[in-house]
Amino acid sequence: MEQAQGGKVKPARILAGSLWGVATLVLLGLLAVIVIGTPGALRPIQALSAAAIVVAAVIAMLQFKRARDQDYRARAAEQSKTHLDQCQLVLERAERILKGHDPEATQPAQSRLLWNETAHQLLLFETLSKEVTEPAHQAVLEAWEAYYRHRFHWLLFADEERLTGLPLHFYAGAKASQEQPVRSEIDPRAIAVVQSFAAYPEGAGDVLEGVDVGERLARSGVGLKTQMGLRGFLCMRGPFGVDIEQAMSERLGRSWSLDPTAEAGPHQDDESWR
C-alpha cells in the first residue's frame, strides 16, 4: 500500500478510497434497477455481474478502512514522538532554571521566581507526559524522568553537609551571611512540586529486582579477576557470593572462589578468563 515517509498514508489514497466507495454504491443502485427491469433469461448473468461488483466494493471498502487505520496509527505515533521530545526539553529547561542558569551550580538558586518557573515547567512535563502513548516512547520517557529525578535530588542533597536538605534560611529568604542580600521566601507550592518530582515514586518497583548477580559478574571476566577489594567485599555478602562462585565455576569449567587467597582462585596468566 502506498505510504508517505514515516509510515504515514497519503491523504490522496484515502480520498480515492472514499470516492471509490461512493461510486460503488451508486453503481449498485443502478444495477439493482437494471436487474429488476431485465427479462428473466438475462437476469442470472446480470445477477452474477452484480455480485462481482458487490465483492469488489467490499474489498475496496476494507482497503479504505485499513488505510484509514494505518494513517491514524501513524499520526498517533508521530504525536507521541513529538510529546516525548518536548518532555525532554522541558526537563532540561526545568533543571537549568532551578540552577539559576549556572551549569556549575551544586544547589538550587535561592530565588522565588526561579523556583516558581521550575515548578511551572515540571507541571507542564506532567501534562505532556500523558500524551506519550507509544510503549517504546513511554520506556524512553521513564528513563529520562528517572535520570532527571536523580539530578534534582542531587541538587537538594548534594553533599554530606546537606544530608538533611537545604537550611531554613534558604527557604525563608534570610541571609546566610552579611554579604548576601535578603530575598523573598520560596513559595511552598513551588517547593511541593519540586520536592515531589525529586522524590522516588511511592509504589515503584525496584529496577534492580530480578538482576542475576552471579551471571552478570561472571560475564565481567578479567574485570572481576583483578579487583581484589571487590572480591573480598562480595565474599561477605553471603548468598550473592555463593551465586557468583557458582556462576564463575560453570563458566570456567572448574572450581572457583571469590576469596583472593584461595588456591582455587584464578591466576593472572589464566587465559580461560578470556
Please describe what this structure looks like.
This protein has 274 residues and is an all-alpha fold. The protein has 3 domains: 5-77; 85-198, no CATH class; 214-273, no CATH class. It has 10 helices and no strands. The chain has helices at 11-36, 43-98, 112-129, 135-156, 168-172, 188-198, 213-219, 222-226, 228-235, 239-252. Helix 4 (135-156) crosses helix 6. It starts with 10 loop residues before the first helix and ends in a 22-residue tail after the last helix. Residues 1-9 and 263-274 have low confidence and may be disordered.
Summing up helix and strand content along with how strands pair, one would put the structural category as mainly alpha
Number of structural units classed as domains = 3
User: Averaged pLDDT, please?
Assistant: 76
- Compressed to H and E, one letter per element, the order equals HHHHHHHHHH
Query: End-to-end distance, in Å?
Result: 50 Å
